[in-house]
Amino acid sequence: MWDTLQVTHERTSDVKRSRKHTLIREYELLRMNNGESISDFQKRFTHLINHLVDLGRKFEKEELNLKVLQCLDRSWQTKVTAIEESKDLTSLTLATLFGKLREHERKLQGPFTWVPKFFV
């Protein structure tokens, strides 16, 4: 019985370790896709981070904030620079950062991209 438990646990540990390495690699290579909205990117990013945290990976606010800013493409460069210069990335929450990015995205889209339901 002990041998069975030990083999089962070791396999579980191996699978867990392999999954963690795969997710870390995915995290390292993560980039925002062409045409992807900030909201969709936030969902992908949060999903990945949550899986890594579940597997024991720890993140600091600054690391996550920098990662998000580094994942954005060149069209976001002015906003990235403004955030980096004006905000303390060690205390800025991810929710606040993504909120600022969504607000900027809405400004870029222009005033007529949102149509109230009663006009549809």
Question: Which helices and strands occur, and which strands form pairs?
Answer:
Elements lengths: L1 H28 L8 H17 L6 H11 L5 H10 L7 H16 L11
Helix pairs in contact: 1-2
Overview of this structure, please?
- With 120 residues, the chain is mostly helical.
- It has one domain.
- 68% of the residues lie in helices and 0% in strands.
- It is built from 5 helices and no strands.
- The mean pLDDT is 87.
Number of separate helices: 5
Note the run of SSEs as H and E. HHHHH
Strand percentage, roughly? Answer: under 5%
Head-to-tail CA distance between termini: 66 Å
> Measured on Cα atoms, how large is the radius of gyration?
19 Å
In total, the number of strands is 0
Largest sheet: none
> Any idea how many domains?
1
Helix content: 55-70%
Tell me the structural class.
mainly alpha
Q: For the residues shown, what is the average pLDDT?
A: 87
Low-confidence stretches: none
Q: What can be said about this structure in brief?
A:
This is Retrovirus-related Pol polyprotein from transposon TNT 1-94. With 120 residues, the chain is mostly helical.
